[in-house]
Design a protein that fits this description.
alpha/beta, binds zinc ion, Rossmann fold, 9 helices, 3-stranded antiparallel sheet, 246 residues
Length: 246
């Protein structure tokens, strides 16, 4: 057993060591936020914008995977194999990718995660990884939009067959079926047809429900309505995420 005075000494020096080491990157207000939400909820727009505002890296697995593939890194070519055959990239590879990104110096004061974690295994691995860095996730924003509204948004998307411009629900063309920029004909991608959209939403719901429970149980989950004007939604997220929860 450690004598009381010695135990006190350890505690004090521990605090001291932390306050010296932590001086440079003192956690004034670490912004370690993850965004969850179905396709069409607008979470990418919000996550990207708020990361910029908070001056922390925006970390999206989709982007990172595409970069790794383009740069032909070992992980990239591994991931490409899965993506080409239409399979999901395994948790383990995703975690390595994210851990590598979050371990870089610019992520020391925080980050905004989007598209990850997608499974409980990923969430647990993320927790362990952050813990090893002496960090933790501060906030999980769940951007919530009703299914009819998601269907409306996702099926409204049109692509120009001539110039490739994408028009979504928030930027409808002046003339139905005609591209504003080049006059080309607009079409609906297979992915955006109602049947396919319903299926995507279904998969998302099944996959994500356990994650929502996981973060709710840890007191990190904050569900924000993603309906209404973009600025109002962003203001709500900003206000709630700005309050340190410790
Ligand atoms: Zn066009």
């Amino acid at each position: 057993m450690v004598p009381r005075r010695l135990a006190h000494h350890f505690r004090t020096t521990g605090h001291l060591a932390r306050s010296i080491i932590g001086d440079e990157e003192k956690d004034e207000s670490p912004m370690r936020v993850a965004f969850l939400g179905p396709p069409g909820a607008g979470k990418t727009t919000h996550a990207r914008e708020l990361a910029r505002e908070w001056s922390v890296p925006y970390v999206a697995t989709g982007d990172m995977l595409r970069e790794a593939v383009a740069a032909d890194t070992p992980l990239g070519s591994e991931a490409k194999g899965y993506m080409d055959s239409g399979e999901l990239v395994p948790d383990e590879a995703i975690i390595r990718l994210v851990a590598d990104r979050l371990g870089r110096p610019d992520a020391a004061r925080g980050f905004v995660l989007e598209g990850v974690p997608r499974t409980i295994a990923q969430a647990q691995a993320l927790d362990r990884f952050l813990e090893a860095l002496g960090q933790s996730l501060e906030h999980v924003v769940n951007v919530d939009v009703s299914e009819p509204e998601l269907l409306r948004r996702l099926t409204a998307r049109r692509v120009c067959g001539a110039c490739g411009t994408t028009l979504d629900a928030s930027s409808p063309p002046q003339r139905t079926g005609v591209c504003d920029s080049c006059g080309g004909q607009l079409y609906q991608r297979e992915d955006d047809r109602e049947q396919t959209v319903r299926k995507r939403l279904d998969v998302y719901g099944r996959q994500t429900r356990p994650l929502l429970d996981y973060y709710r149980g840890r007191g990190l989950l904050d569900t924000v309505s993603g309906e209404g004007p973009i600025e109002t939604v962003r203001h709500t997220i900003r206000e709630r995420a700005g309050i340190p929860r410790r």
